[in-house]
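re the bet — no i am not wrong, look at it urself. input seq straight from the record:
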Amino acid sequence: MPMGIEFPLPLSQLPPQGANTSSLELEQGPSTFHRMLLSVGTEVDRGERLMQGVVSGRDGPMGAAELIALQAGIYRYIEVVDLTSKFVDRAASAVRTTLQSGG
C-alpha cells in the first residue's frame, strides 16, 4: 500500500476565527502556497499508485503505447519528487539561517 503524504488541514478543520487567523484569511480560502502543497501531494500519491501498480503487475502485459505512457508517468513522478526535495532543502536552509541570525 503506498504511503500517503498528509499536508495542511482542509478548510473545514481550520482553527476558529480569532485563533491566530484573520477573518480575511478564512474568507479568501487556501493560500497559493497551501494549494501548491496539496497539488504536490496529489502528484506524489498518483506517482506512488502508478509505481505500486507496475511493481505488483496488476495491469498485466503492456503494449508500446502503455509503456510510453508509463515512462511519461514515471518521469512526472521523478520531477515531483525532485521538486519536493529541493523545496525541503531550501526550507531547511531558510530555517537554519533564521536560527543562526537570531542567536
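see?? DSSP finds three helices and no strands in the chain. told u. also The chain has one domain: 15-102. so pay up
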